[in-house]
Amino acid sequence: EPEVTQTPSHQVTQMGQEVILRCVPISNHLYFYWYRQILGQKVEFLVSFYNNEISEKSEIFDDQFSVERPDGSNFTLKIRSTKLEDSAMYFCASSQGRHAYEQYFGPGTRLTVT
Amino acid sequence: GENVEQHPSTLSVQEGDSAVIKCTYSDSASNYFPWYKQELGKGPQLIIDIRSNVGEKKDQRIAVTLNKTAKHFSLHITETQPEDSAVYFCAATTSGGYQKVTFGIGTKLQVIP
Hints:
Number of helices of chain B: 0
Structural class of chain B: mainly beta
Number of helices of chain A: 0
Largest interface: A-B, 26 and 25 residues
Distance between the termini of chain A: 37 Å
Low-confidence stretches of chain B: none
Helix content of chain A: under 10%
Number of strands of chain A: 11
Largest sheet of chain B: 6 strands, mixed
Oligomer: heterodimer
Shape of chain B: globular
Order of helices and strands of chain A: EEEEEEEEEEE
Structural class of chain A: mainly beta
Mean pLDDT of chain A: 93
Mean pLDDT of chain B: 92
Helix content of chain B: under 10%
């Protein structure tokens, strides 16, 4: 069964450093999403991406964040200058259509900012 | 925006017993309610869902109920098995636009053999 993959599984970085989290969505999917879950808190929507542009973003997704689909297969989340509060599990998801029931989630990348 | 509350945060049951997880939502415009199961090392996976025009839905040992008036919905797992042990998330979303999912905090279910 096709699945969404994410790399790395765990990333440790120092405050102020840039990080790029990578996702490989399911190959025929057109809609892409990032969510995050801070330890002990809810999974929160960050951003959705379709047709090479952001379709919706949350208040969390400020200028420090950016997304890109650089080569038609990867979908990346960049955090320009990490803060301690960016420490969280980041989930990528993809879907063929725009409906929530079509979203498939990756296993997540645990980001630790020290 | 939508807010989804979920309880309990942890739940331990004996194998064979039933487990119930309850959620409430705030936005009356929400009309689609998925439930996800997250096993260790994996992302959330959709296990069952219910739409606002339906009060109950069942799939083998799992069932979901929805009370739109009270804005709450529940997941019921009967005859629990050790492989049901996981974190379960309830969620809500609205149709139209790009459907971001609003999650509850999750319930860690442990089924004791």
